[in-house]
Amino acid sequence: MERKIRVLVAKPGLDGHDRGAKVVARALRDAGMEVIYTGLHQTADMIVETAIQEDVDVIGLSLLSGAHMTLFIDVTKLLKDKGIDNMLVVGGGIVPEEDIPELKKAGVAGVFGPGTHCDDIVNFIKTNVKR
Amino acid sequence: MNDITSNVLKGEPRAIARLITLAENNDPVATDSMKAIHPKTGKAHVIGITGVMGSGKSTLIYELTREYRKKGLKVGIIAIDPTSPFSGGALLGDRIRMTELATDDGVFIRSMGTRGMLGGLTSAVYDVVEILDASGKDIILVETVGVGQAEVDVIKIADTTLVVLVPGLGDAIQTIKAGIMEIADIYVVNKADRSGVEQAVAEIESLIDITCSDKDRKIPVMTTVAKENIGTVDLVKEIENHKKYMKKTKMFDVQRRKRYEAELVEIIRKKLMNFIFDESTFKGKVESLIDQISKKEIDPYTASEEILGKILK
Amino acid sequence: MLEKALISRGGNLMIGKKELENIKKKQSDWQKNCYSKHIKTHSERQKKFVNLSGNEIKNLYTPNDTTHLDYINDIGFPGEFPFLRGVHPTMYRGRLWTMRMFSGFGSAEETNQRYKYLLKHGETGLSVAFDYPTLYGYDTDHKLSRGEFGKCGVAVSSLQDMEILFMGIPIDKITTSMTINGPAAIVWGFYIANAENRGIDRRTIGGTIQNDILKEYIAQKSYIFPPEPSMRLIVDTFEFGYKEVPRWNTISISGYHIREAGSTAVQELAFTLGDGIEYVKWAIKRGLNIDDFAPRLSYFFNSHNDFFEEIAKYRAARRIWAKELKKLGAKKPRSLLMRFHTQTAGCTLTSQQPEINVTRVTLQALAAILGGTQSLHTNSMDEALALPSEKAARVALRTQQIIAEESGVSNTVDPLGGSYYIEWLTDKMEEETYDYFDQVERLGGVIPAIEKGFFQREIAEAAYKYQREIDNKERTIVGVNDYTTEEEVTIPILKMDEKGEERQINRLKKLRKDRNNSKYERSLAALRKAAEGDENLMPFILDCVHSYATLGETCQVLRDVFGEYVEPAVY
Hints:
The complex is a heterotrimer of chains A (131), B (313) and C (571). With 313 residues, chain B is an alpha/beta fold. In chain B, 48% of the residues lie in helices and 13% in strands. Chain B has twelve helices and eight strands. Chain B has a seven-stranded parallel β-sheet with strand order 4-2-5-1-6-7-8, sandwiched between helices. Chain B is globular. Chain C is α/β, with parallel strands linked by helices and 571 residues long. Chain C has helices spanning 2-8, 17-41, 71-75, 108-120, 132-135, 159-165, 184-197, 213-220, 227-244, 256-260, 265-286, 290-293, 307-327, 333-336, 357-370, 390-406, 420-442, 446-451, 454-471, 500-514, 517-532, 538-546, 551-562; strands at residues 98-103, 125-129, 176-179, 207-209, 248-249, 251-254, 297-303, 340-344, 375-377. The longest helix of chain C has 25 residues, at 17-41. The radius of gyration of chain C is 25 Å and the shape is globular. Strand 2 of chain A pairs parallel with strand 3 of chain B.
């Protein structure tokens, strides 16, 4: 049986804009992936625990409120602290270009801003998934 | 005993999650662990929860879990959603109603897609129940895809089956007489703050009177308002009562036996199908047989005899 | 059908029966000959032309498309029922729309500076954007506020912050709109208390609180409490408003966010008006007289890309609202006229080639103006990158000023009235809105439909369809899937004061220490008791505000009593 890629789509922090997260979740489902959507208002603890239990290959973080430097990095740091290195972390939403290098250094492998084609996200995941 | 097995038995979440993935993907690496943990299973009370979409199953599970946690019990939750037959993908969104449980280390939640299996469950669910059981969970809640007539497989795996309904279904209760209305050990009318609840309870009770042959135990009809945590304590009591009843009448072991039978059948089925359709040399023969059937050179029955003949040799 | 229309009404839109028949015949000839001949060698760009709501748009609209309309009853005159052509007799000839730029970021001090900047450059109304913790009723030092301080709006945790926010700004002479929903009653309390502390009578202050919880459940998701207690709070504000703060609009029934979440124009129209009617029904159930509170209900729409569809949408909105409020028993003309604010569509702006967003915003602003908006916010070109920089906000403001002063469009009322296309489209959108009203009725009403996930599903479907069209290049977004460049984005991005969060937290600590804490505790206890009962909560909230209870502390009391809302999972 062909292995399915499991993706966690999470909304960290207080941001309630879920249009993009939901559209991406559907696109990933249509590409044959199993997508677990956490809903809103997730802390880093909740996201990482969920990722562990669901044994996901990818964690997708969606944020449009500007708090990405704190909240995305909270997640990557917690993964590192727990010794988890086989999950691909990607992010999307409103992230200025100039913040991307630091996010990448902290462990966010790809950042997909406004105007991203859904296929680009799918292909990035398929290419970069670690297992 | 390998690492993953001992960690699962210790209740370590990462190991549990990993073994579930391996079992779900039919990875042979899982087999040794699955063999090793079976003797350590049997303690957990498996509760199946099915019902129409929108009946509030997930919220009910959330509130039941909170109640069990208050009693100090460990809970495993398996939330099953349909896999798209077209893309093979799935949107697993039941966790959204249980978001606060994510950081409770006495709760383990796993979302699963049906992956082509009909009946409301998924093929690996037996394995997952065994894994959660062996890892020390006292209660395992299985939330199925339950919509109507055909999604009744939950009775194969559950010790206690709950069927969740909502008021206002009206004639729908009559039309779904078969299927999920036959499998309940306990009926739950959720969203009982809506109008029509007395009527719904009455309709179910009249159905029970007609179809219930078991005179010893009358199937209870509970009412809950899950989102306000009303009726949960009583429901937990009823579930416990059902377990006591099953143990007293020895039905518990009979039911468990049915589960092991279903589990054995599923393991055999999977292995057979894997062998026939995935094994590299054999698959070629199967493909050519299918071509011959299409061209009317051979019929399906003869083809099956050829395949099975080779296996059962 | 034509005969019936002519007999039952005073006459047709513009033309008599015989002439209409002649036009019909001549049009048919034209279609068969001139048009058909032309497209044999010059085919149209697409097989079908479909607008954003999925309605097919014909090649030509003529009097034959508006034969069912009666000028007197269906179109009428501005300032009179059904208000299709405008809510005031003179519209912009008398007074231009308010140029009200939505803004806020960081701490109250920084935002105060931005308000003064915008006022200096000619904006005529204030509009406050709050940060996420404030929107959810959390103080800056709450654990869930981590990383969010000031990022998408200004942080207001107490009356003290409100004092700083409006320092040196004449709030007795200018109106303020505040985009706040869950904790709206409390933030309104801050504003009222601040005005009164400055010696301004509450009966003279003007402004708006968004205070529209239904669309939060549907789209924006910054809800706190479940529907019932939220509606109770809102009706409390209606009642307090018309009795105590009569110049205040106690609600801004919003479609903007529904549209931003991905809905079509018809859905925006239908869901928003449906919400509005629901609020009126709840207030009537409370026992309020419709003519007392209805004049202070206001609306807030999006202005999206399809130019003519947006104009038709605003016109249809006015007519539907007037009809529905009449049905609900309103008698005063002021109760029937729909005043609305518009914001250009943020979701249409791109991070690629951001300068061209100015063009998009211009078209969208023009549509809102031709649609008769009372007040307008134009987005900045850096919308998809960060909060507006000073310069970008100024350019957006200038866009409005150019339309107002240089284009001449404001010199007559409802200039597109009578256009066959616009009148046909207005009517079509009204018809489809009523279809949605029926659907929601069948589901049991607005709140049951929300709980069943109806609106959320419609919106998610429309959003997904739109994205697929873009991905498949069936819909062109300039700079994104066509006409792209590789050049780097070089416009300046807003930078905020990094010390702002620390200052705010220290300020809060000091406030909690320095206030009269027994007064504070008494006021919260009184609020809790009142919340458990059914008294109007505004006076109790104002007591808490005056005792310098923070937003988070006050909200927590309500959270304890009302509970918190969890949404259904809908894609």
